[in-house]
Amino acid sequence: MKQTYAIIGLGRFGGALLETLVANGQDVLGIDINEENVNDYRDIATQVVIADAQEDDVLRKLDIGSFDHVVIAIGHNMQASILATINAKDLGAKNVIAKAENKIHLRVLTKIGADLVVQPEREMGERVGRKLLAPNMLNFIELSDEYSMAEVQVVNPQFAGKTISELNIHKKFGLNVIAVRHEGEVLVAPKASYRIHDKDILSVVGPKDMVDDFDQMTNN
Ligand code: ATP
Predict the structure, then answer these.
(1) What is the pLDDT of residues 25-49, one digit of tens each?
(2) Structurally, how many domains does the chain consist of?
(3) Residues 128 and 114 in one domain
(4) Domain containing 182 — which CATH number?
């Protein structure tokens, strides 16, 4: 479904986000104070504007409140990031996603009403760390402080040929197998009698530490 997006700040983060959304057929307005940055996206974005997003009436004139999603992708200039977030929320933007530089910035953005605050460097650092520690974990989503969802590839020959119930995945780990990918085919909600093959990718959901333990077990 086509949605409308406004991205304020066209640095590496905002720029990559804009390119991804446009490549997937979305309407994107890009805003940046720096003319050179704006020019980089002139032929890509639906519309670009050179403007200082912390000025009171800039976001109002652009009718920011009418966009489905507004992303504040300004990091270093914390004042601009905070004012742009407040202005976007005051103008009625339903979903404001803001990028934070550090923990304090994150707390402030959350307090002033950002619907989602991201810390790309921190999140990517954690992701790379997890990838190094658990190379079979293809994807990991933190659902809460306690629960996560992960895609784990089976490379332990002792797993292959056994059914989900024989492996006691639910009892031993407290995990639910919600899908299995076998040679490109996805089987949603597999039965307990499903026989696991080497290289199958299991999507599991459950307590975080158990997801980690399960990943270790699926290793050789
Ligand atoms: P990235 O990591 O995304 O490259 P950065 O942290 O290196 O970003 P920032 O200082 O966060 O750089 O700036 C991101 C973008 O936001 C820049 O292109 C900058 O010109 C733009 N920007 C900064 N202040 C404002 C403002 N007041 N209004 C609009 N755009 C702004």
Answers:
(1) 999 999 999 999 999 999 999 999 9
(2) 2
(3) no
(4) 3.30.70.1450
Residues spanned by the domain of 89: 4-118
Predicted confidence (pLDDT) at residue 157 exceeds the cutoff of 90: no
Tell which atom from ligand 1 comes closest to the C-alpha of 120: 2
**Which amino acid is it at 189?**
A
Among protein residues, the one with the nearest Cα to ligand 1's atom 8 is: 11
Same domain (yes/no): 56, 8? yes
17: CA distance to ligand 1 center in Å? Answer: 13
Which protein residue's CA is at the shortest distance from atom 25 of ligand 1?
33
Co-location of 113 and 128 in the same domain? no
Q: Is the pLDDT of residue 127 over 90?
A: no
My answer on whether 51 and 88 are in the same domain is: yes
Boundary of a domain, candidates 118, 136, 153: 118
Of 181, 178, 179, nearest in space to 200 by CA: 181
Q: Specify the 3-state DSSP secondary structure of 84.
A: helix
Q: Which atom of ligand 1 is nearest to the CA of 121?
A: 2
Question: Residues lining ligand 1, judged by CB closer than 6 Å?
Answer: 8-14, 31-34, 37, 52-54, 73-77, 80
Kindly state whether residues 54 and 156 are assigned to the same domain. Answer: no
Q: Ligand 1, residues 12, 40, 55, 74: which to mutate, most atoms within 8 A of Cβ?
A: 74
Q: Which residues of 86-110 are buried (b: 16+ CB within 10 A; e: fewer)?
A: bbbbebebeebbbbbbeeebbebbe
d(CA 89, CA 83): 10
